[in-house]
Known about the structure:
- The structure holds two protein chains of two kinds.
- Chain A is mostly helical.
- Chain A has four helices and no strands.
Amino acid sequence: MEIDPTQLTEQVRGLLAEALHVPHEAVTDGLAFGDLPEWDSMGHMEVMVLLEERYGVEISADTIANLTSVEGILAYLKENGHA
Amino acid sequence: MPDTMEILPSLPIPAHLVGEVQSKLAYVDEAVARGDVSPAGDQITLYLRHPLESELRDSLQEKVQRVVTSMVKGAFRPKVLVLEDFLDRPAGGYTADPHEELLRRGELSQEANGVYVLGPLLTRLIAWFEARFMELADSFGAAPYRFPTLIPAKYMERVDYFSAFPHSLSFATHLRTDLDAIDRFAQEAACNHQGELEAPSDSFAPFRTLLSPAVCYHLYFSLADRPLPGGQVVATAVGNCFRHEAINLVSLERMWNFTMREVIFVGPKEFVLDNRETARQRMAKVFEEIGLAYRVESANDPFFIGEFRKQVAFQSAFQLKYEIRARLPFKEATLAVGSYNYHQDFFGRKLNITLPDGSPAHTGCVAFGLERMAYAFLAQFGLDPHYWPETVQNSIA
Lengths: 83, 397
């Protein structure tokens, strides 16, 4: 299902806030793995689990290693038909 | 009288997790003497020390299913990368398990479960490997360190050790500083027939220290909360390490108290990764010189069930750990004798170790289990030095 890009950005920011247990405003557009103490290895895997649940993103070595920023996640979702 | 329990796992255990699940069965219950998972992953057999009443059997079954669910549900299949494969080297042609022969010759004696005294042959062999590891350390200009055996609980908490590896922790304490408690202990303390120390329950001080499970943590703790001196550090140390692995403790393959030599890198990401790779290439030459049969492949740390699935997936995706797995011909299996590790900036962040630009330092280490190294060598070349590679033979003679 295609989503408006602005809406998708907000959804992804919300997903990250939920997975990392941080306030929504802490998730800036430029945020990346390691920028917040909460976005550590365990936090990253929580992000991956939610991405799988919400968008059907397969958890693989490639997705875990590459989807490490808000920008990267958005680009991946757009490439895979979510916007 | 021993008893067994057959359990059908609530989820089929995939082949790559059979060994991992089996190793965690050791921690399910003290009544379990051994736990096996069938190669197909569809059957678990528990060998019990004594028969259990039905209520306890139900509880045991529930715990086993909890292990299976935690480790298998949603498990991600790790990507196995093989960097070196010399498992088919002929090595020494020895095919027996050296353990029994070492015991028979008095080269090895067991003090407790997983605790061994090593005799002169093993000690000299370990010294030979130690000299090679020190050459590796020197090739990086590594600064020598001596680290204590005790490690503060508050630091281990700070690096999330309690949630990642609670199952293998070993604790250290002392008597309370109280004359009455010391007197009572002196009068009443005695070991029962199982070797358990029985003493008044209020004898002991709270746990503030543990027995160190690894070497490199001490360096990171000593660098905590300040800028990294010179922006990069290479250090080396050997130390006693303690990991209690319950019924998995067997021979020199898996000891409670063992020694590790580490070469440790702290600095920018590229510095750590480049040195880890250089160390691997330099060690390949050492292993080639002695004709060791081994493989270097991606691996994961033995996380406990709560974090296992996610941490293993993360380690695999970022290729954070490679193990040197030496062949054990007597059982057609391999044994991890060392590892090449990269922790990203985990310790830099957790311990506030900063680079000159203010960013957290990256860390990595190469680690060698000295007893395992010697054990794998003996498993391939035997106990008679005449059949050893000349270079080892000459140094030890």
